[in-house]
Fold these 2 entries.
Entry 1:
Amino acid sequence: MGRKVGIEVSIAISEAVKLANADVVAAYPITPQTHIVEHLAELVASGELDAEYIPVESEHSAMSACLGAAATGARAFTATAGQGLELMHEVLYVASSMQLPVVMVVANRALSAPINVWGDHSDMMAVRDTGWVQIVVENGQEAVDNVLCAFCIGEDKRVLLPVMVHIDGFHLTHVVEPIVLPDQADVDDFIPPNEYPLPLDPARPVTMGSFGPPVIYPEIKKRQDVVLRESKEVILENWQRFGEAFGRYYHPVEQYRAEGAKTLLMTMGSTSETAMDAVDRMRDQGMSVGLLKLRLWRPFPFEELLQAVRDADLLVVVDRAISFGGPAGPFCSEVKAALYNQDKKPKVMGFVAGLGGRDIPVGGFEAMVHRGMEIAEKGGGEILETYGVRE
Amino acid sequence: MQNYTVFVPRLVPKKEPFAPGHRACIGCGEALAVRLACKAFPPNTIVANATGCMEVISSQYPMTAWRVPWIHVLFENTAAIASGIEAALKAMARKGLRPDDGTKVVAMGGDGGTSDIGLQALSGALERGHDLLYICFDNEAYMNTGIQRSSATPFGASTTTSPSGIKSIGQKTWKKNMAAIAAAHDIPYVATASHSYPHDLMAKVAKGIAVPGPAYIHILSVCPTGWRSAPDLSIRLGRLAVETGVFPLYEIEDGEYKMSLELPKLRPVEDYLNLQGRFRHLSEDTIKEIQERVVAEYERIKEKTG
């Protein structure tokens, strides 16, 4: 059943990687990911985790070494944040295109300049289209559970895709929470052995990463998209299996007091916990407000979103990133695009808040809901509506 | 030294891990160098290949010239890819996930992928001590993209981004010394080689793979397309590069320099430069400058051999 401990979320994530028995860890330190890779180094040094730890000279090489390891058939893990994720950007596309199932935790961090080590979702949004399965969590327990699920999902022969687990930098990485760490035997039962179908092996030589001319490239890309979309079934299957084994269930779009709500707040990541308090307050005041929390960012859960908003008149989406000069919040854009062709759909109001670690208090979510309602009713509103930004 | 009979075909292994039928240009020295290097591989070898000529000519889907497990990922990260493969082989053998069959890892890239964009990843791999051989197949410019200069392009060479002109002698800088850079990582084995000395090349590759820890071999690879030379002169140009002292063949074993070939007297550099269109614009003064530098460099390496 596991044991419940008070533990820093980063340390708990490393313990989850140990429970998953990773073979290769390649990592380069970057705030706020450091505690994860430090503790993994300790686990390897103490012999608790039998893995090769490669202290690479850059994030680009961290991801590259993970690809080499995954191509050889090893279970590979890395973690990064912000600029590190940007530096490994081009390698991310290759990981998914070559179907190499690496698992990576991203301690979401703002992007320079100005240099800022605190959390927001700019890094996550920049890697939106890299073809990875992307799961967003809101607390330490969810991080641990989804790191375990990530290995099952990515290594499944129907998927064979890399998986990112997004956790908010500092708001999650550096906080101590009560977390249930599962027992090794239960994790061993839950995660099947990694059997990569055609690894680099002199007994059976394969050519990997060949040059794809126009005559084949579009077909390869189409197939990649199909595989990522169809991975949703495997993700749901593994979350179900995880729930049955450990008693905690996960869904692509999580709901909090959303039944019958006329106005729905929509968040991603750790701010969801604050947003729940805001929903409680507004419900206490008699307002018909609920919360949707997006758990599965890629593949995007279109059906689950439509289902979740079917009774709502207004959706207030909170972004922690800006699409400069574009439709403001990338998360909100996606939600709008998903709803656009529906006959019955709520109005969608987007807000950008919490950039670079700026706190969003409970009252902030209430303010965004009220402002959203006001714009929905009276019209107006800016393309970039922000909360908590001094003009 | 023009005695070509030192090449004894029957002493060359018949196996061809790098199969014929690839798309290299006529007279490509690099494809020959790769072919020879592959002949020296032990049976269990995995190859990681950087983006560049060799990847393009050998792997166009759905065909492949590779009879060994081969992976190409990107341009600048081949040493890191190879690091990951080596670490995976180690961990998996230890954990009983794959047989402990002594599989070897060879990383390869061109001069751009090695001495420019891939230098950081290479330095990391050498410094960390992975058991792998890295081979730079140096044709002295970005030939695949159309003959742009790299840090390995020799002084005076005209390329598409270091063109000669009224105000330009061509490449303004001297060739980056990659063997010395690799050796500065205190790795057990570094060597230079040439496809025009096949037995020497194969022996060095075999040694570089056998030595525990990182090894680096820098192979000068004649490129008729980029050097503006006749395709049937590739072997001779490889020889002339060595005989003039432009590209000395040596090994650095545990820091000890050793000349691979005793040259009683260096030939004049003109013998080498005059056969290549990339140097045709050079003035006598510039050739003299090159001659002096080549002799000085050669003497410096010779001194190190003590």
Note: Chain A is about 40% helix and 20% strand.
Entry 2:
Amino acid sequence: MTLKAAVFLDKGGTGKTTSTAHLGRALTELGHEGVLIDLAGKQSDLAKQFGLYDDQQQAIDNDEDFPNLSTVFDDDFGKLVKMNGADAILDRLIYETDEGVDLIPAHPGLDSVDGELNNIEDREERYGRLKKFVDEYLEDRYDFILIDLPGLSRIVPYNGVWAAENLIAPVEMGSYEFAQAKQLADDVEKYRSNWGIDAELSMVMPNKYERGTNLADDYMDRYTAEFDGAMSPEPIAKSQDIRNATEAGKTIFELEEPSTTAARAREAYLENARALVDRLGGVQ
Amino acid sequence: MSDDLQIPEGMNDDRGSSLDEEAKASERFVDDLAAALGAVKRGDVAKTVSFRDERTAALFRALGENPSELQSAIEEARHAAGVEDNSEGDRSELLRLLVRIGIGEVTPELADAEKQARMERIEDDY
């Protein structure tokens, strides 16, 4: 069984991409093989995080970007696979990063997919396309699949929710973010009742956490009271090194001399990755 | 990357962002419009346009019976369309001008597309 989770919160800037990259990298560090899927927008931030952005943009500029993640949502994707074989298609879709985890990067075509899926009346057809792709082609190949979703409630992100069912919400210590996380918990109940899927808020992971400040402590208490069983075991420390590593096209796991906060964040990601495995099962 | 792949008929293997897709749709429309202009010019498609509307039919019937009202409306329409002409006009000219002014004001993107299509035709003709 494969561990599947989507990183989601209906708000931008809470560290969804950083969390996806680092949790994926942490699971790899723990010996699991996995793939990250970037549904978070045409800016292709996960490709930047792993230093693959230029390669991907070059492929787009040279018209060498077919098939790509938007193709997965096409009516005829199954036919394309049948005509060419799954390996030929997946080889082109999946990029290998230097950090061991694989990546299916975002593509500009994704933002026109939403409008096309909007015309489909059948709910499973509309929201279930990514799930079909994940279940049929990725599940057997990987121990874990993490999906980075945009901070928007639209059809493509909901495809990510259907495919993963387990949600990870990165949160910051603030009232707005706290309200967003509560809203997500309510939404998860609606996903379950309206769509009949086994959606679950599996992990609430505090981000950019400044240990020892009153504000952080207060909010941590509030989060813990509200999301008790879903809280990640460790908050992720605020660290300039995370930003520096991202700018350099890598995760903090690749830093040779991490700062104290980066080392703490790395340990926290590892601990949270272990908890994810415990909670969701799947990988050994 | 797709050169050695078999692609199902009708599958979009060049999907861009929604902005790119909109631009492509608009290019296709200009091409269709240029082709239609060619068909009209060759006589494959009628040069006349007709439509059914009781109120407009009554208005133009009454204008036909009142030449000074008609001429005054034609002059205003010519002015709005930027046409310099002092000759006596007819109901057909008035309708033509009003439709063109309407297209330009209400759907300027259609007027632009028509302009581009005419340019395309001129380039094709030479």
Note: The interface with chain A takes residues 1-2, 5-8, 10-18, 20-21 of chain B (CB under 8 Å).
